[in-house]
What does this fold into?
Amino acid sequence: MTKAQRTAAELKDAARRLLVRKGYADMKITDITEEAGRANGLFYRYFTDKAALLRALIADLDPIEPALPRTADVRGRVEAYWRWYRARQAEMIGIFQAASVHPEFQAAQQQLREREVRCWARHILQSRADGDQGGAYATALGISCLLEYFCYTQCTGQTPPLSDEAAIDTLTGLISTGLLANT
It folds into this structure.
């Protein structure tokens, strides 16, 4: 890794820590450079603004699809999503918050959500006898939004924190007995 690559990685790591602690709106470039132990002007050698930095973090995200098991095991799918989100909470928090004011990040959020929806829709269609693709998609969208917002509120401390197991059990119960009960 070159010195330039290390510096960019340090700035990204600093931004990840700040996204979790402060959020996107309250994170300033001076906060990022201070957190990274770098001069303020150095930031602009690598990124034009904090939106460019968030774009770089999004570009580094690995997709959720490979993490999801291809079985009918709802708990396994929920656990895979939970662990994937938690490992990428800084990026997901940044996307969620930036999407409220930046159409570009709304599109990024929608693209990530759509991947999750497709995975769940395939799962639902495999377990349904009627082959109702529209209904499967609507249910999958509900599941994906539930997972996304639940994880977001847990990662940002907006709700009392749950252990990983308690969160996974709660989500599995909601999805299994609520959203998937009639599939």
